[in-house]
Amino acid sequence: MYKIYIFIRLVNKSNNHKTIKRGFEISVSLPLFDWGDTRRDAMSARTLAAANRLEATVRAAGSNLRQSYSSYRTAFDLARHYRDEIVPLRKVISEENLLRYNGMLIGVFELLADSRDQVRSVIEAIAAKEQFWLADAALQASLIGKPTLTSAGPMAVGGNASSDVQH
Fold first, then answer.
1. Domain boundaries, the chain
2. Cross-strand pairs, 21
3. Could you tell me which residues come within 8 angstroms of residue 61 by beta carbon, excluding any fewer than 6 positions away?
4. First vs last Cα of the chain: how many Å apart?
5. Residues 25, 10: Cα–Cα separation, whole Å
6. Do the beta carbons of residue 23 and residue 45 sit within 8 Å?
7. Measured between alpha carbons, how far is 60 from 69 in angstroms, rounded to an integer?
8. Which ranges of 23-158 would DSSP assign to H, the alpha helix?
9. What would the pLDDT profile of 61-71 be if each residue is shown by its tens digit?
10. What is the pLDDT of residues 29-80, one digit of tens each?
11. pTM here?
12. Is there a smaller number of Cβ atoms within 10 Å at the N or the C end of the chain?
């Protein structure tokens, strides 16, 4: 790639003899020795841009992997907590309330409310396990390079307090 410089200027020359020359003067400057500075600078800029894109891609991949693992670990801990603590505890509470009902210490409606709570905890445990398997699939997809847009937000399980109003 050669650089060619063209200069155009208006010329007004006058001599003592009242001869006036008017017109345009054109000068062309051709470089005889082109050392490739322009090409080298352009290649350097492209290389630097490619290096920056590579660094951004590596950082994004690492961030996505950390986020996927965090979602996976959170879902795993929550599912394990439901499996190991919440569901067995609700079962023990239901058995105790059944004994209290048999001893005529509580009524039928309290027993039914306790059964409803036990069913809700089992449904929440199933939903937590579902979230775990979704997070596991997202982590596996991130590991092979196909990230997914899953979030580890709060689970949409359980009922609202307004829908549990007893009639």
1. 68-154
2. 13
3. 145
4. 87
5. 6
6. no
7. 14
8. 37-81, 87-102, 108-144
9. 899 999 999 99
10. 666 666 677 788 889 999 999 999 999 999 998 999 999 999 999 999 999 9
11. 0.61
12. C
